[in-house]
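Hello Y.,

Per our agreement to keep a running log of every chain we model this quarter, I'm adding this entry. I've kept the format consistent with earlier entries: sequence first, then predicted structure.
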Amino acid sequence: MSVRPDRTAGDPDPKAHRDAASETDQALLPHDLPVLEEGLGAEASEVELSEEARERRLQLADQLSRRPMSSAMLERLGRWLSFLGRLLFAHVLFERRGIDQLRECAERGTVVYTMQTHSRLDYFYFNYAFLKHELPRARFANDLIVRPFRALWERVVSFVTRRRIEGPRKMEALILRDEATFLFLQRPRQKERDRVAYSQPYLYRLIQTQRRQDTPIFVVPLCLFWEKRPEPRRASLLDELFGTVQSPGFVRKLVNYVQTFWQTFFKFGQPMVQVSSAINLKEFLREYPGADSSDASELLRARLEEQIRQESHVILGPTASPREQVGREVLARPELVEAMREHAEKSGEDELSVRRKAQKLFDEIAADPSLLMIKIFSATLSLVWYRIYDGLEVDEPGLERVREQARTSSIVLVPSHKSHIDYLVLSYVFYHYGLMTPHIAAGVNLSFWPLGPLFRRAGAFFIRRSFKGEDLYPVVFREYLIRVLEEKYPVEFFIEGTRSRTGKLIKPRYGMLDMMVRAFASGRLDAIKIVPISVGYEKIIEERTYRRELLGEEKQKESLAGLLKTPKFLTSKKGRLYVEFDEPIDLAEYFGRFGIDRLEPEDEDLDALTVRLAHRIIYDINRVTTVSPTALVATVLLNNPNRDASIGRARLLHELGFLLHFMTQPGRPVRLSGALREALASRQAAIDALRAAHPHDTPPVSLNYDEDADPNDLERQHIESAMGRAVASVIDRALAIFEKEKQVRITDPGDRASYTLEPQARHEIAYYRNTLVHHFVPEGLLASAIASFESSTIPLDRLMDQTLFLSRLFKYEWIYEERAEFENVFMRTLDYFSASGWVNIEGAGEERVVAIATPRPELDYLRRMVLTFVEAYALVFRRLHELVDVPVERDALIKDVIAKGREQLERSELGFDESLSKPTLLNALRLLEDWGVVERHTSPGRRREVVSYQVHPDWRGEARYRELIARVEGILSPGDAG
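Predicted structure for the entry above:
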């Protein structure tokens, strides 16, 4: 039974095509070869050939492959052509992954390169690129002449011998000899029927050739984009004359090339090659076992055109509609029409006034993207990045996963939010890696003139921080958002809502995510893939501003004057910038995972799923956040027990090695910066030898070390010291950045160097420590729980209870692993402590105890990783007695806590400057409210509502909240946790 694709009125009839192909074949054959394709409808005659016929085909193949055909790519370029190639094509981006894919296909079988539209310039480019990258050159291309004298000779021979071998037969002959060929599917501005007649005989011949041989034929679609602009919705007169932007004639192709050449020179972007997924014809034919060669060739054309269409969409995006048209479409949506009608009834306004209000809201929200503005931003940012940063490290495999998903789904990008630069990073990366730039949800505070209109033209759409008291605004925003996702534009939003001032991710906000979840649940969006992304910085440009805000100063409203202060940062390097992608989350799979019926979901189920999904996204961002050299240095310097003391180089490197060894243990998904990975890899042999020298008696992770050990003496060496020394040069560069910023003081440079953290810089340095502290949370909480007991032998159940209390205490500080049971995480961490030799688990069943034979420096080190947070919470808890009688305004309370904390620092009653962190103190208040210890009161203010707190009536008995305070104090001051 034949399998046939759905066909429109304009599609060719398979039988007619089969007859035409049969006639074509006979015209192709030389007179000394028999006609073998009679009765092409019979599958056996398509596959089975006599030995004599096979031999004659091979003879023809030998004859045709002996000399290059007139369309064959040049096997070498002379001096002038090489110069011309470098001049014309040096700026074209041909990524390594595409080159590797073509090389792999050539190793596994025979390659047929395929492009949508015939182009001599594109063919010349690929000739240049294939020579440069040592890829198989095409020995044939349809309807194209590279060697005019050879073409003339072929015509003469054909006339004299009266034997004419047409293109499909030539292509088959070369494939039999495992030679690469090139196939254009259409000429510019061709009509549908002409396009089929132009290339379908070649596709038909490919199918037949594959049926007759075992070696796989790989048909590889290639896309070369000179201009990243989608096709117009309606062709203009110029388009009719010279071709469209993506299917141009010769004149327009030349104009496009000249334009991209000068734009590349000014960093406005660059042309790029995209290699689509190769189609293995052997596997392709297995998918359609009942299809004859004619039907299979039609299916192959449909597959090729769909893949090329998907690649074009991923890179160019959909054909954009004017903003005014988008506005009309959004306001005409039934959901918004109904909301406007209800608003009119409720407010008493006439429908025209309500519509004007909705139009005004749309104008406030909507982006108005312009390719020119994106190019200008690209050029500007190229200068900025490499002025203040040493470059970008982009997770290219992760970006490729995003590209794959973008072919068939709406993509939602959810990056971390640590700097104003975040708004620009992903657009820059996507543009330069050949993906459609995202529409970005930006706070309405960034819509100020003149930068607001520029951001809007670069793809930003603006969202208010609160929808409170609004009934029309959220509907306009939701309908606009759904419309953008329906068009398959990538959408980027910051789930934290605001920039993190601490370096640690903020608990998620649910508004936009909830809109997307409900749009998907209602069937208005078919497929959504959510991509958690970490955007990290070795140094951020706002650290001074953040320090002031952490210490209680009010956040300054963004303005042009404020942003113009940025140039002062252009005078110093800030290290590297990192972009990491986690696995995309398929929303359909997520619904199924939790057993939620997408067609008839309950509101409560959607609410719970949104919250769970938001926390999952934050956890995944944390998981892929790059550990930078500055983060490692900051952690070691801040973990010094004596905050005013210096630390020697040997100890610094050993503690760095301790952190690295901990984070590179099997099963820990930690991503180190490229420089750290390369440094460790360069010394991997020595580290492996060190492990082999101590196979049994060396604990997996240890802070004990011999400061005077010879690096070549494996008997006295430690893995941690070896790993620290391996990254020493990378760490020195990080220390130099801190020293230049007057945050670290270095004395006696060299092996005897010592490093002192400047007291005023602790908050700024803590920012970088907080970017990796989440990797140590389970260990830090357990170590803190152990330290809170006075005894060296702790009942396991009491230790678990104390650790659980700490875990719940910091529910607003860290996101824990999704669906991970606390007891499993606790036991896994405790087993690690035991395997490391830090504790012993003794007894059985309910009698099990945890024994600590001697004080372990490792436990104290891990405890100090989280101790600043315990200290901050204790500062707030100690003020509960002031909230018993009357409510205290929140901002005044926080300022007072910080002021009293500074006094305690001067008296050395507080261990860490960085404990005085406004966001952490606010989280402590939020926790007390969540636990019902305090209640929240609000009252109107001049600019915003005033928030106050008072101890809840149920907790006003002094004994009750005193017990809570005592438990937190016990974690700070080790003793009996009771």
